């Protein structure tokens, strides 16, 4: 009986989600609509439609136009759409930025975003000196063992960062930093230094350096990195690369609407 009750509760929740989406689609199609019309379109009682609208309104997804007035799409939808559009714009704009920098430096350039505790590469370009043909686009990489990942990890809210660092961190090479205190100290220097360099932390013989890409409000939305073999991308060359890498990331940030003071 308990399993049956659980299935019924789950089915009811799914139905509520489906109805809520139908409300949003209805308002998007018809514009301002009253609760009676919404209930009729959904085939539900007005009280059910009212509860759905109340929840959507509390999240800013719909708004009531005047007291007991009609409903319309809320600005919360704009926020959600903006986040999706921003990612698409970043991937599109990032391709050109990656290619220009890769041609200039001769190394592989990537752009990565944070997603559910990992970094996901959304753009890549290989320079003339790149020796690997591996395409990292779409690949998930660890936050704690990559230069891009550390930039993204450093930008997370402190509570989220601590939560991720409490997990068991995989040691990919003898150089991978897995001690939470040591890693936290390194992340705390990111703001001051403006970049993160990783030397053979994910793969032996591979070095990388990354800097943040910022959105309109100055928030870190992605990381741009340059990677290459350790014999060519020495620590000295990494320091030389930081400036052109930072300039490229700032240019992309400006295209996304961020302008440094």
From TrEMBL:
Domain HTH iclR-type, residue spans: 14-103
Protein name: IclR family transcriptional regulator
Source organism, top-level taxon: Bacteria
Keywords: DNA-binding, Transcription, Transcription regulation
SMART domains on file: HTH_ICLR
Pfam family, one: HTH_IclR
Keyword hit for Transmembrane: no
Keyword DNA-binding: yes
């Amino acid at each position: 009986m308990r399993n049956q009750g659980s299935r019924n509760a789950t089915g009811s929740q799914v139905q509520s989600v489906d109805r809520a989406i139908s409300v949003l689609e209805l308002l998007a199609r018809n514009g301002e609509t009253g609760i009676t019309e919404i209930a009729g379109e959904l085939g539900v009682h007005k009280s059910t439609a009212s509860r759905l609208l109340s929840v959507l309104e509390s999240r800013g997804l719909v708004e009531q136009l005047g007291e007991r007035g009609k409903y319309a799409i809320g600005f919360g939808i704009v926020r959600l759409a903006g986040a999706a559009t921003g990612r698409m714009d970043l991937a599109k704009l990032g391709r050109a930025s990656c290619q220009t920098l890769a041609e200039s430096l001769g190394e592989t350039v990537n752009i990565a975003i944070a997603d559910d505790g990992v970094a996901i590469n959304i753009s890549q370009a290989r320079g003339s000196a790149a020796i690997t043909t591996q395409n990292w686009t779409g690949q998930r990489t660890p936050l704690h063992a990559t230069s891009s990942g550390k930039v993204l990890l450093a930008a997370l809210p402190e509570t989220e960062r601590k939560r991720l660092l409490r997990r068991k961190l995989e040691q990919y090479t003898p150089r991978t930093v897995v001690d939470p205190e040591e890693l936290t100290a390194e992340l705390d220097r990111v703001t001051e230094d403006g970049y993160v360099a990783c030397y053979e932390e994910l793969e032996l013989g591979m070095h990388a350096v990354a800097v943040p890409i910022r959105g309109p409000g100055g928030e870190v939305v992605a990381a741009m990195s340059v990677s290459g073999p350790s014999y060519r991308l020495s620590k000295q060359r990494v320091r030389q690369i930081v400036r052109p890498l930072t300039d490229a990331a700032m240019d992309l940030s400006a295209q996304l609407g961020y302008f440094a003071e």
